[in-house]
Amino acid sequence: MRTTLKFIPLYLFLFVMTLAGCVSSLPTTQPESAQTDETVSAAETEASRPPLAELQLSTPKTNYAAKEEIPLQLNIQNGKFDLLVPAFAVATKGAFTRITVKDTNGQIVEPKRAITQENPQKYVARDGKQVRCIHGFELKASSNQELKLKDLQRYYRLQPGTYIVTLGIELEVYRDSITEEHPDVLELQRDLTRLQNDPNLQAAAKQDAVNYFQEQIKFVKERYKDEEKDLYLPVKSRRGKTSLVSNKITLIIE
């Protein structure tokens, strides 16, 4: 009995140390107020982040007759980064597909005809492979892209009254691009590939022919080096998209 009483303090000491270790290993939870502050801070940071590009919508005047043409101009002012984007969204009338027209009651006016622009896909050769792409456009940093819509009334039947017009663009951004070669270069490259895969040619004759085609390709590339080439964006290189909204303009139909 005396021996048991002698070791009771040691047991208590070990129990207390074990309990302390368990408590210290529990995950800590931030106070609710601290979590709320962090969430608000993150939201404020996101809201204060400048957009990739800005849209400025304008028209020559405010007042128009009932059947008068209403031209619109869109300026896309890019930010500090070069962007690879679909051509239809920034270089064609496709940029105007998401126009919104509202009357004085805030009701959306439905278009009589949709503004549409096709965005076809195309297979483009790169490194001997066919890559599925869309037609692309490089929006340079700090550049201004100007687009015009000849007549809003072609798409909206606007009765006499006051209207508010805005424009939105869902701008997709890509990380990779392919510049399509001149058709003459593509034809020579196809001939070169067929030649290289021909099992009936002797090695020496094949090498001479390969050298010839390579020189021809080099010559044609040099001839057309200053011509503008079509840019294509591999579908699989899409990074994401950003929503852009223009300013509001007022139209008065008399």
Overall description:
This protein has 254 residues and is α+β, with helices and mostly antiparallel strands. It is built from 5 helices and 13 strands. The protein has 2 domains: 156 residues, Sandwich (Immunoglobulin-like); 42 residues, no CATH class. Strands 2, 5, 9, 12 and 13 form a 5-stranded mixed sheet that branches. Strands 4, 6, 7, 10 and 11 form a 5-stranded antiparallel sheet that branches. Strands 1-3-8 form a 3-stranded antiparallel sheet, with no helix packed on it. Helix 4 packs antiparallel against helix 5. The termini are far apart.
Question: Can you describe this structure in just a few lines?
Answer:
By secondary structure, the protein is of the alpha+beta class. The protein has helices spanning 2-25, 32-48, 87-90, 183-196, 203-223; strands spanning 53-58, 63-64, 72-78, 83-86, 99-103, 121-126, 129-139, 144-149, 161-174, 178-179, 231-234, 238-245, 249-253.
Salient structural properties:
single chain; 254 residues; alpha+beta; Immunoglobulin-like; 5-stranded mixed β-sheet; 5-stranded antiparallel β-sheet; 13 strands; 31% helix; disordered N terminus
The tally of beta strands, per DSSP, is 13
Give the integer mean of the pLDDT values.
Answer: 80
Please tell me the CATH architecture of the largest domain by its name.
Sandwich
Provide the domain count.
2
Instruction: Name the poorly predicted regions.
Output: 1-8, 10-48
Shape descriptor = elongated
Question: Gyration radius, to the nearest Å?
Answer: 33 Å
Q: What is the ordering of alpha helices and beta strands?
A: HHEEEEHEEEEEEHHEEE
CATH topology label of the largest domain: Immunoglobulin-like
CATH class descriptor name of the largest domain:
Mainly Beta
Number of helices: 5
How much strand? 25-35%
Global structural class: alpha+beta
The largest β sheet comes out as: 5 strands, mixed
CA distance, first residue to last residue: 109 Å
